[in-house]
Design goal:
single chain; 189 residues; alpha+beta; Immunoglobulin-like; seven-stranded mixed barrel; 2 helices; 15% helix; 37% strand; elongated
Amino acid sequence: MISARTFRSRAATIVVAATLLTPVLAGCSQEPKVIRSYTPAAGVSAGNDSVKLRNLALVHADGQARLTGMATTSANDAITGVTGEALSSDDAAAGALTPSTTRVVLTSGDASNLTNAGIQLSSDELKDGLLASITITFANSEPVTVRTPVISASDPDFTPAAPTPSTTPKAPTPSTTPKASTPTPTPSS
C-alpha cells in the first residue's frame, strides 16, 4: 500500500512536471518564425517606392508567355511597357523578348490582376523552368527589373493563365519557285 505522504509527493511531482511541460508543448502548435521574408508562391516579388509587384511569373507555351501576378500602387500610375531577355540555364542572356502592346492602368489602393491585363512576351528562347529578366516601365514611377520564373502552361495550376496564340503571321519560309506547267490539252467535241 502507498502511504498518503508518498501519494501526495507523487501527485505534486506530476503537477510540477505538467506545469513545466505546458509551455514546451504549446510551442509545438505555433507556426515557425521566418527571419527573412519570401514569397510562398511560384512567382517572385519586386517593386519601387510606389508600385508593389507580387507573385510575378511568365506562363509559357509555344514561344509565347503571359505575365501573371498582382500590382498595387500608392499613387495612380500605369504600366507602359514590359521588355526583357530570356535567360539560359547558366543565367546568360539567350534572346530578347518581343513585347505585346502594353498599357495597364493602376489605380491607387487597388490591386490589379496582371494575368487579366493580357501582357504577353514572345521568344523562341523561353524555356520552362528557367528565368527571364524583365523590366516593367511605368508612367510615373521608376522602372522595375526582376528575374522572373518561366512556368509551363501545361501545369494545371497555371493552365488558366496560358498565353493566347499570337495573331501575328509568321514570315513565310523560302521555297523553290514552282515551274510553269504546260496546260494539258482537252479533247474538243
